[in-house]
Amino acid sequence: MVTEATRKSLLKVRVMDFITSTAILPLLFGCVGIFSLFKLLQRMRMKAYLRNAVVVITGATSGLGRECAKVFYTAGARLVLCGRNREALEELTKELAASLATKVQTHKPYTVAFDLADPGAIVAATAEILQCFGYVDVLINNAGISYRGAIVDTTPDVDKKVMETNYFGPVALTKALLPSMIKRRQGHIVVISSIQGKISIPFRSAYAASKHATQAFFDCLRAEMEQYEIEVTVISPGYIHTNLSVNAVTADGSKYGVMDKTTAQGRSPVEVARDVLAAVGKKKKDVILADLLPSLAIYLRTLAPGLFFSLMASRARKERKSKNS
Ligand SMILES: NC(=O)C1=CN([C@@H]2O[C@H](COP(=O)(O)OP(=O)(O)OC[C@H]3O[C@@H](n4cnc5c(N)ncnc54)[C@H](OP(=O)(O)O)[C@@H]3O)[C@@H](O)[C@H]2O)C=CC1
Ligand SMILES: CCCCCCCCCCCCCCCC(=O)OCC(=O)COP(=O)(O)O
Q1: What global pTM score does this model have?
Q2: Ligand 1 test: best mutation among 84, 118, 246, 272, most atoms within 8 Å of CB?
Q3: pLDDT at 1
């Protein structure tokens, strides 16, 4: 009598016989080999792309920008670190210079302090960068500010401040660098948007609007720049553990000053910076760096907008209730 165990082991033997007597095994090894080779070539191309590249990073004084500075520095990029706080930029430069030796040659970063809300300062900063380096390979528009407030309470100045920092500033900086990129037929514009560039959640009107505008502008830019071989990467992260909520502006223009639970529980900026490096190295066009729920919410907004709007209205009710209690 044939037992269940014997039947199973007979089946195993037959499957193994089939695999070894046919071309499946060599085919399997072949596929794994080709895949590994592809990955190796991709990594090599990525490293070569960023080594010695002139990379401008805005908002390098803290959070994601600071971590991006570290990973691009380690990759051998020639960095231009931007922010408003000159001392913080100098401190980061010293920290990078003191970091342990890497496999590739590293370069002392150059720093430029300017306010993205000041169009004149953007023009001057761009002239300084181009005079110093001659060209820019990669611009990472990372600097940004968030906001918390109800639309009815929010002053127009607050709406403007958020739009200036998150939208008009990056747009002006990008436009100032584009002519030199077009001339070289080479360059890469990166922008750190947000999941809120794809969906809008209550009490974030100015922030979500600025990020939606960012997504739209840089999508247009990608299409227009294709003829010059200039790359455009839009990166949309979910919550990251930085000071974004602490630095957020409120309805009356004052600083929010609170580390929100969602922010505190967000991804580590170190990990997100690594993902940014990979996205840039692979010349990705549009990247979402978020958990499953925010990613699903983007599909829900497109496929079942009615349901998405109900969920957001209920979120607004809950938030209002918890504020009033
Ligand atoms: N943290 C999060 O949960 C998420 C963040 N993001 C995006 O990531 C980006 C980085 O934010 P994050 O690191 O989290 O926040 P941080 O508040 O830690 O960093 C913001 C950076 O922007 C700079 N900045 C702010 N305003 C200006 C200005 N007017 N001119 C020039 N620089 C300015 C700040 O530099 P300084 O003060 O020196 O000027 C600082 O370096 C932002 O675009 C944000 O929208 C996207 C999704 C989620
Ligand atoms: C098919 C089932 C789909 C279920 C979807 C349910 C809808 C859940 C809503 C989820 C909302 C996620 C919001 C994420 C927001 C976010 O990640 O923002 C990133 C930021 O920029 C953070 O800035 P903030 O200043 O708001 O902290």
Answers
A1: 0.92
A2: 84
A3: 60
